[in-house]
Design brief:
By secondary structure, this protein is an all-alpha fold. It has one domain (2-24, 31-87). The protein is 77% helix and 0% strand.
Amino acid sequence: MFIVAILVFGMAIGWIAQMLLGRARAAKDRNWLEAIIAGAVGSLVGGTLGSFLLGEDFQLRLGGILASIAGAVIVLAVWYAVRARRAA
């Protein structure tokens, strides 16, 4: 059950990051696998750094959620830049 919760949380964070980057405006533009991966990696990186910087423990708090979104945005931005460079 915990793994399902992580996947759902990662997908939600990744979807928010895609929305912030303007990549998920239409249903055909959504890539759920990309959202899950970026959300999970971004949540891990951003949530961990946010917890360390804010001096919080690893609990679900607003600061951790915002740091997770920021981490996912960074992961997606790098992902898109690498993909665009390979396509060129």
